[in-house]
């Protein structure tokens, strides 16, 4: 098994909380991680039809069989377990009793918030970060290769072509998460919606335009975006909320949790096609956002990540807030050549937010990091500098 950075935080939390919950997209490596981290725990998959039927029929007896040191995989499939689990936990109050994993964030967290609040530590495991892959034999050959392949473990470890992996992944996702469990009946329309979302990666999201292009109504778009978010396919990045005397837009930006999936939906079939694609800059920006998120989540944290765009269309790609104020202001340029003009918006807007030059960054497509009088220039592998 390739090392996951999250494993250290996972092990430490099991000494403090009776329940640890790990959510993330399908095939992000959750089951592999927890089974490797806890070899002495019993493993129960509620994907198994027979096991799920037993748990649903008699939750109390089911938990009595596995009342301590057990991994319950895809546990959101049997939400009846949570209220009974609360009683077991409160009787013993022992740390590390249950390790729960699941691929549907909304359903799992809804059940947890109702029954296990205060008793559970919640972690997220996304596909491999660039940092995790770079320390293995599966290091991407270049940035276009990383954007094209993405970070899904099986694809990288087994050397599967993205052209084979992602169509099957999407088909499985649509069938199991969308149609069977989340209630979407218009499968063909949802597929179109998913593809059109990929064309909007890194853009400010116009809900009405997306609805018109998909031939569905605005409420359906909002519902389907929530489905993408709850199943860790895509997420919306919110604009910064403090205006500093500027009129800011209120719409969010759309990103995918994996650039390989987004590239496949865009019809990109090779690293060479991606390198020449009109979407390369958007996908690179997407990768920066997700890499920052992954590095925070590997430490059990959630970054306060935003973007800035005002009514004059002045924009900063990313702002990381800490202590109620902006800590870092970040511009992203996919070019491997640094140009001082990349700092223009940062020099214009960052002083308004109180962000000094030491905390202004341009993330570019080159291989070196270096300081300038405008701020710091970072290569992609140095994004850990933002984790604070």
TrEMBL record:
SUPFAM superfamilies reported in the protein's UniProt record: P-loop containing nucleoside triphosphate hydrolases (SSF52540)
InterPro entries noted in UniProt: AAA_14, DUF4143, P-loop_NTPase
Residues covered by the AAA domain: 17-133
Domain DUF4143: 175-335
Protein name (record): AAA family ATPase
Organism listed in the record: Bifidobacterium ruminantium
Species lineage: Bacteria, Bacillati, Actinomycetota, Actinomycetes, Bifidobacteriales
